[in-house]
Amino acid sequence: MKKLILTLGIVIATIFTATAQEARGDKQADKVLAEYTSVAQITPDQSAKIKPMIESFIATRKANKEKYANDAVGLRTANKENKENFKAQLKTVLSEDQINKIEEYNKQKREEKRGSNNQE
Q1: For residue 42, with 0-12 CB atoms within 10 Å meaning exposed, 13-18 middle and 19 or more buried, which class applies?
Q2: Residue 47 pLDDT > 60, yes or no?
Q3: Is 43 helix (H, G, I), strand (E, B) or coil?
Q4: Which burial class, exposed, middle or buried, applies to 10 when counting CB atoms under 10 A from its CB (0-12, 13-18, 19+)?
Q5: Which of 55, 62, 63, 70 keeps 20 to 30 A from 18, CA to CA?
Q6: What is the mean pLDDT of the chain?
């Protein structure tokens, strides 16, 4: 009986953890989409097309993190390939001007992040 209760508890905990992680991924995709929409004036039609791309990009990064947990070079290479694939997908939906605005926004975010890391 104790084993059954313990097993049931572990199963329930696993389900809650998986659900929470999935919800966190959705929130992250929504946040990225909102940022891109405000920066590049993405239309609702474009938004509907690129949301699955963003979700796939995030899911692949998470999978890479697990797959290459002990291989920094492999992780860097896999993430770079994922990023290039994501950019290519975006170019099929967004205009060149929108792509440039998003790239500039991402560049600013990286610089701000580096600046805050150097101040610590």
Answers
A1: buried
A2: yes
A3: coil
A4: exposed
A5: 70
A6: 86
pLDDT tens readout for residues 48-67: 999 999 999 999 999 999 99
SS3 41: coil
State whether the Cα torsion 41-45-49-54 is positive or negative: positive
The 8-class DSSP code of residue 93 comes to T
Q: Structurally, how many domains does the chain consist of?
A: 1
- What pLDDT sits at residue 118? 63
Q: 20: pLDDT confidence band, cut at 50, 70 and 90? A: very low
Cα–chain center distance at 75:
15
Whether the Cβ atoms of residue 47 and residue 33 lie closer than 8 Å to each other: yes
Any alpha helices (H) in the chain, and if so which ranges?
A: 2-40, 44-67, 72-91, 96-119
Q: What type of residue is 100?
A: N
Residue 104 lies in domain: 2-119
